[in-house]
């Protein structure tokens, strides 16, 4: 599943919602699209333990789930706070269970929560784990990591068009929050800003590594979000 593109990953969840009977909201116009998003696109080929999916569904879909389970209405003014919390928790679990049943192997739905209608999710940082083959672990690798972290600037040449005609030199040092060698794992925390971030392939190039030198696929974990 790590080889699915951003659009293909969204399509997996769209189809799962349809099969689960979740009444999604759609955009207007000639080509309506479900109102769902993955605020931090995952690089193709990278596994992830910490993805966030946001979607908008009609309230009647939630009310049907509530009625089917015999829970009080979420908008019932006579409900006590603890009753509302219990109802929301139960509906969260109901949605999680019915949606999990429709997801293919390789996808795990960890939790479901309600959000404010105008809530916005902006990533602050993400951590990537690169597992290096044991025979390639040496003092030079540790020295390379130390040199990178001690550098004030790290310029890379980034391709900025699909035709591979235009390139731009970018200083990516400001995007690297930390880089540590833990056993066979190189753990890199990267800042994510409105101006962008450092790419997985660029991290490997700075470390003078390639995919053949890794013991397992690159994994993204511990995504942090800004309070908006």
Strand order of the largest sheet: 2-9-4-8-7
Q: Name the beta content range.
A: 15-25%
Measured between the Cα atoms of the first and last residue, the distance is 30 Å
Number of extended strands = 9
Overall morphology = elongated
Number of domains: 2
The CATH topology label of the largest domain is Alpha-Beta Plaits
Order of helices and strands: HEEEHHEHEEEEHE
Could you give a short account of the major beta sheet?
A: 5 strands, mixed
Average pLDDT works out at: 86
Identify the CATH architecture of the largest domain: 2-Layer Sandwich
Poorly predicted residue ranges: 66-74, 76-80
Supply the number of helical segments: 5
Structural class: alpha+beta
- How helical, in percent, are the residues? 25-40%
Rg on CA atoms, Å = 22 Å
Q: Which CATH top level class of the largest domain fits?
A: Alpha Beta
């Amino acid at each position: 599943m790590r080889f699915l593109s951003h659009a293909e990953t969204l399509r997996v969840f769209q189809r799962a919602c349809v099969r689960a009977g979740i009444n999604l909201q759609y955009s207007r116009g000639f080509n309506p699209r479900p109102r769902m998003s993955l605020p931090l696109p995952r690089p193709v080929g990278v596994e992830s333990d910490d993805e966030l999916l946001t979607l908008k569904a009609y309230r009647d879909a939630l009310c049907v789930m509530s009625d089917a389970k015999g829970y009080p209405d979420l908008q019932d003014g006579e409900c006590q706070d603890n009753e509302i919390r219990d109802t929301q928790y139960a509906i969260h679990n109901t949605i999680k269970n019915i949606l999990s049943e429709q997801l293919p192997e390789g996808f795990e739905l960890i939790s479901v929560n309600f959000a404010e209608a105008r809530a916005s999710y902006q990533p602050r940082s993400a951590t990537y784990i690169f597992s290096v083959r044991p025979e390639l672990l040496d003092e030079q690798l540790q020295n390379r990591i130390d040199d990178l972290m001690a550098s004030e600037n790290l310029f890379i040449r980034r391709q900025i068009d699909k035709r591979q005609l235009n390139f731009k030199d970018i200083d990516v040092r400001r995007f690297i929050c930390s880089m540590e060698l833990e056993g066979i794992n190189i753990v890199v925390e990267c800042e994510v800003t409105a101006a962008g971030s450092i790419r997985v392939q660029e991290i490997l190039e700075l470390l003078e590594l390639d995919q053949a030198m890794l013991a397992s696929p690159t994994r993204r974990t511990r995504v942090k979000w800004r309070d908006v």
